[in-house]
Design a protein that fits this description.
single chain, 258 residues, alpha/beta, 8 helices, 14% strand, globular, binds 1,4-dihydronicotinamide adenine dinucleotide
Length: 258
């Protein structure tokens, strides 16, 4: 289990769900991981649990929409470990409301967390990684950045924006000879708080109905487990994906195949 031996990684939104699964897998593969999240209570608790297992986990509170906050956390990574090899821009939110019900404030909030923050994190990671001539940035987009969902136009737009942003940055970094690869990880529907009840604007009954509806439509008949998404992130983080940049890696139980 050494595919990320001594690699320094930063994962946003790592206090739960997919981000936590990615942080845990990276740690078990030998990485030093800075878990970050807006939810400090849960993030600290998980980092402490992981340290007790002998893993090199730290936690810093980071609101990904705050550029100054990003700078402090990048500085903390540098102080602890001296470099940054892998950034996973994973933090995200979903607000369910069709285009007629959606407010401008909800649109802006979704795009601030899901898209603007990916720009901020990517820009700061490039500044750190280009000095060392290598790095991997993984942007957690979604199949919902490829197809539209009537109840998620803001989410769709933010994730579609991430996908094309990643392509522009990949071409730039490759042509500059920075040695930095950047790819999109596009999960299908995964069993996390985002789907199983944590959605803003939707009560738990409607969330359960939505989950049942999704399961019917997924060819494999079930949601992804977070660790199944994390394994794809590991591939993008490691040298196994050395010729891959500007791509989408879709992990969706066959959803887009139909
Ligand atoms: P989750 O709700 O379990 O985790 C999201 C994490 O992001 C939470 O720990 C939350 O505290 C954190 N977060 C929210 N706003 C933040 C902010 N401003 N700054 C820092 N952290 C913040 O959800 P899940 O499912 O693990 O989502 C992770 C990523 O995967 C998101 O980008 C999501 O859009 C994406 N995704 C999820 C899918 C799913 O079906 N669960 C499908 C496709 C993509």
């Amino acid at each position: 289990m050494t595919r990320l031996k001594n690699k320094v990684c930063l994962v946003t939104g790592a206090a739960s769900g997919i981000g936590l699964a990615i942080a845990e897998l990276f740690l078990h593969e030998g990485a030093c991981v800075m878990l970050t999240d807006i939810n400090a209570e849960s993030g600290e608790r998980h980092a402490e649990r992981l340290r007790k297992d002998g893993l090199t986990a730290l936690f810093e509170r980071l609101d990904v929409t705050d550029e100054a906050h990003w700078k402090q956390v990048m500085e903390a990574v540098r102080e602890h470990w001296g470099c940054l090899d892998v950034l996973v821009n994973n933090a995200g939110i979903a607000i369910l409301a069709d285009v007629e019900a959606l407010t401008l404030a909800q649109w802006r909030k979704t795009n601030a967390v899901n898209l603007d923050a990916v720009f901020i994190g990517t820009q700061q990671a490039i500044a750190a990684m280009k000095m060392q001539g290598a790095g991997s940035i993984i942007n957690v987009a979604s199949i919902e950045g490829i197809i539209g969902e009537p109840l998620a136009p803001a989410y769709n737009a933010s994730k579609g924006g991430v996908r094309i942003f990643t392509r522009a940055v990949a071409a730039h970094c490759a042509r500059q000879g920075y040695g930095i690869r950047i790819n999109n990880l596009c999960p299908g529907y995964a069993a996390t708080a985002m789907i199983t009840g944590g959605m803003e604007t939707v009560g738990s009954d409607l969330a359960q109905q939505f989950q049942a509806y999704l399961e019917q439509r997924i060819p494999m008949g079930r949601l992804a487990m977070p660790d199944e998404i994390a394994k794809a992130a590991l591939f993008l983080a490691s040298d196994d994906s050395s010729y891959m940049t500007g791509s989408d890696l879709v992990v969706d139980g066959g959803y887009l195949a139909q």
